[in-house]
Amino acid sequence: MVTKEYMREWVKKNPDKAAITKWKQYGLVGDYQAIYKRYEATKNCDLCGIELFGRGGNKKCMEHCHKTGEFRNVVCSRCNCAKTDRTKQKTNTTGYKNICYHKKDKTWVFRKQFKGKNIKVCRKNKIELLCIKFAAIILYRY
Q1: What is the distance between the alpha carbons of residues 57 and 30, in angstroms, rounded to a whole number?
Q2: What are phi and psi of 38, to 5 degrees?
Q3: Which of 15, 50, 51, 63 has the most CB within a 10 Å radius?
């Protein structure tokens, strides 16, 4: 079994392979070596021109098509969020954003990321979950 310490060392020694492995998992397609070189060489956002570094809105992101997986640009996280695909997810058949039904568990699930924290609420009743979602909107105003 691979230990966490081994994986940390491997990522430090092979940053390009680690990034490419993650990109493949997320469905990015194309010439990975060329994309990695462009990713490493990019110092400013391709859309707004802000300098890319560290965390927050200045973090480097891979902007790509979620349907085809085709890479488009290296952008800051703000531009990436603004450019997200607004199409309805195929897994969401409820008609409500961030709510899905798990057939295996027979539960309704509400997932939302708020100020860096992942919120996940599961309920057997859809109406209960909708009440929780709308209460969260009022409380957190997201």
Answers
A1: 26
A2: -65, -40
A3: 63
Domains of the chain: 4-82 (3.40.1800), 99-140 (no CATH)
Q: Are 76 and 97 in contact (CB under 8 A)?
A: no
With a CB cutoff of 8 Å and minimum separation 6, the contacts of 55 are none
Each residue's pLDDT, cut to its tens digit, for the chain (142 residues) gives 567 787 778 777 877 677 777 777 777 888 888 888 888 888 998 888 888 877 666 888 888 877 788 888 888 888 887 776 555 555 565 677 788 888 888 888 888 877 777 888 888 888 888 888 888 777 776 5
